[in-house]
Amino acid sequence: MLLGLLLVWAQTGTLDIEALSVSHGAGMSRSVQILAFVAIGIGLAVKTPMWPLHTWLPDAHTEAPTVGSVLLAGVLLKMGTYGFARIAIPVLPEGAAAVAPWLGAFAVVGIVYGALACLAQRDLKRMIAYSSVGHMGFVLLGFATLTPVGINGALFANVAHGLITGLLFFLAGAIKDRYHTADMPTLGGGMLATLPRLGSVMTFAAVASLGLPGLAGFWGEMLALLGAFQPAEGLPRGLFLAYMVVGGLGAVLTAAYFLVMLSRVTHGRPHAAGGTMTPPPVPAALAPSSAESAHESPRPPNDTKSPQTTLEALPDIRTHELLAWTPLVILILLLGLWPGLLLSLSTPPVQALLGAVS
């Protein structure tokens, strides 16, 4: 990204974002714009993250504490897509138009790849992390269309992803705090029976993330697909129609993996009869020997390290969790029912941005 910005500076003599946006790429040839867009775009793609530069994200989310995952999903990932909207596309319009078909291709591969990877996950936080790869693919597809509809959809999906995925990571952290595991088969389902409020909010966040109409996750993805249906003039419409179809398949797969997750975590009967949850067996290599076991003192019944956790004793949503999650739930509903609240704010800047591209 630094090399790309230095190339822009060498050609124009400035790195003032506003001046470069107003100049619409003046002073830079088409080949220079393409080279600079590719260099800057690769740097931004790592941050977004775009397939195949996404591999750092699942590990980062899995190892991070809950607050770290929320900040990463809700704020920090947006720096990559913000860079495309604020710097790469308006400063390098000819480069954006030349690279847009490739950007769209990587975007739709990321959508399908992210969904398939989610279907293969056992860890709840890791599944949510891979879902971010797919959702950010819709954001990149919207940018690739270079249309008001597509870029508005990309910005809307950006905001919606921050709200919904932030809430999902809050919930995953709360579940891990109570059950001491995020392994979905180990959780065993039945959360709606044992922790009805927590299970209900998890269901709400999941259906919002899969794009249920009336919730914030719907509008950004649908507008991105609509932008692919009629891309900007000069872009290959047949290719973008194929992207629209593949993106629609990815939306179906998104619904599939979230429904699978809900069936494993919230629905069904509690994990074990008698209201207890037994953790997975310890591998033989890590199990204590019989001699060590003979000298172990028995644990008292109320010991917090007991191998069984009574499900009835687990707390439902706590007060501080309710205070933190309620604004996110309200905003998800508000933007889903009245998308014009956000679109009215984003449309004028998008039109100004596209003035540099057209």
Automatic annotation (TrEMBL):
<comment type="similarity">
    <text>Belongs to the complex I subunit 4 family.</text>
</comment>
<feature type="transmembrane region" description="Helical">
    <location>
        <begin position="195"/>
        <end position="220"/>
    </location>
</feature>
<dbReference type="InterPro" id="IPR001750">
    <property type="entry name" value="ND/Mrp_TM"/>
</dbReference>
<feature type="transmembrane region" description="Helical">
    <location>
        <begin position="155"/>
        <end position="175"/>
    </location>
</feature>
<feature type="transmembrane region" description="Helical">
    <location>
        <begin position="322"/>
        <end position="341"/>
    </location>
</feature>
<feature type="transmembrane region" description="Helical">
    <location>
        <begin position="30"/>
        <end position="46"/>
    </location>
</feature>
<feature type="domain" description="NADH:quinone oxidoreductase/Mrp antiporter transmembrane">
    <location>
        <begin position="1"/>
        <end position="230"/>
    </location>
</feature>
<feature type="region of interest" description="Disordered">
    <location>
        <begin position="271"/>
        <end position="309"/>
    </location>
</feature>
<feature type="transmembrane region" description="Helical">
    <location>
        <begin position="95"/>
        <end position="116"/>
    </location>
</feature>
<keyword id="KW-0812">Transmembrane</keyword>
<dbReference type="InterPro" id="IPR010227">
    <property type="entry name" value="NADH_Q_OxRdtase_chainM/4"/>
</dbReference>
<protein>
    <recommendedName>
        <fullName>NADH:quinone oxidoreductase/Mrp antiporter transmembrane domain-containing protein</fullName>
    </recommendedName>
</protein>
<feature type="transmembrane region" description="Helical">
    <location>
        <begin position="240"/>
        <end position="260"/>
    </location>
</feature>
<feature type="transmembrane region" description="Helical">
    <location>
        <begin position="67"/>
        <end position="89"/>
    </location>
</feature>
<keyword id="KW-0472">Membrane</keyword>
<dbReference type="InterPro" id="IPR003918">
    <property type="entry name" value="NADH_UbQ_OxRdtase"/>
</dbReference>
<dbReference type="Pfam" id="PF00361">
    <property type="entry name" value="Proton_antipo_M"/>
</dbReference>
<feature type="transmembrane region" description="Helical">
    <location>
        <begin position="128"/>
        <end position="149"/>
    </location>
</feature>
<keyword id="KW-1133">Transmembrane helix</keyword>
